[in-house]
């Protein structure tokens, strides 16, 4: 997967608070508009999700897919890759947290390859829209507690 999109947002919270929300997959349906269900299939030694299945309903885009997560030892990053999906052939993503005083810069990188071919320009536009929404929802959830 060559093409990827990257966006960032500043959240008024410590990195630990941001990562706690990112890692709480079971709560995603409470605060994300598109994730209707999240099932943690396996966890690592620290109790963080290693494989998680998501049910996504974003209007015209509906999918059930499983992601495999790897967590940075310093607690400042998490990477994921697609294990299986219905509409996706591949997905690679990363949240990287950068402490910025009392705030945290969240850098989100995403690359998605759909099972149905899509012109690169449209795919990148869709990725950017997904990322923009995800970052705003994450910021709102962390800052509201």
Structure description:
The chain is globular. Strand 4 and strand 5 form a beta hairpin. The mean pLDDT is 90. A seven-stranded antiparallel beta sheet has the order 1-7-6-5-4-3-2. The longest helix is centred in the C-terminal third of the chain and has 25 residues, at 120-144. The protein has one domain: Alpha-D-Glucose-1,6-Bisphosphate, Chain A, domain 4 (2-Layer Sandwich). 26% of the residues lie in helices and 49% in strands. Helix 1 crosses helix 3. By secondary structure, it is an alpha+beta fold. The termini are far apart. It has three helices and seven strands; from the N terminus they run E-H-H-E-E-E-E-E-E-H.
Largest sheet: 7 strands, antiparallel
- Shape descriptor reads globular
Q: State the total count of DSSP E strands.
A: 7
Order of helices and strands: EHHEEEEEEH
- What is the alpha-carbon Rg in Å? 15 Å
Mean residue pLDDT:
90
CATH homologous superfamily, by name?
START domain
Proportion of residues in extended strands: over 45%
CATH topology: Alpha-D-Glucose-1,6-Bisphosphate, Chain A, domain 4
What structural category do the secondary elements indicate? Answer: alpha+beta
Terminus-to-terminus distance: 35 Å
DSSP helix count? Answer: 3
**Poorly predicted tracts of residues:** none
Give the spatial strand order of the biggest sheet: 1-7-6-5-4-3-2
* Overall structural domain count: 1
The second-level CATH architecture is 2-Layer Sandwich
């Amino acid at each position: 997967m060559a093409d990827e999109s990257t966006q960032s947002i500043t959240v008024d919270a410590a990195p630990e608070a941001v990562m706690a929300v990112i890692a709480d997959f079971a709560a995603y349906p409470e605060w994300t508009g598109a994730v209707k269900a999240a099932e943690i299939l396996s966890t690592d030694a620290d109790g963080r999700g290693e494989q998680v299945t998501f049910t996504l309903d974003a209007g015209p885009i509906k999918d059930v897919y499983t992601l495999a997560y790897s967590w940075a030892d310093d607690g400042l990053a998490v990477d994921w890759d697609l294990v299986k999906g219905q509409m996706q052939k591949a997905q690679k993503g990363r949240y990287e947290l950068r402490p910025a005083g009392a705030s945290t810069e969240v850098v989100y990188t995403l690359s998605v390859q759909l099972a149905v071919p899509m012109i690169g320009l449209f795919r990148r536009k869709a990725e950017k829209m997904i990322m923009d929404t995800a970052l705003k929802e994450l910021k709102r959830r962390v800052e509201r507690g």
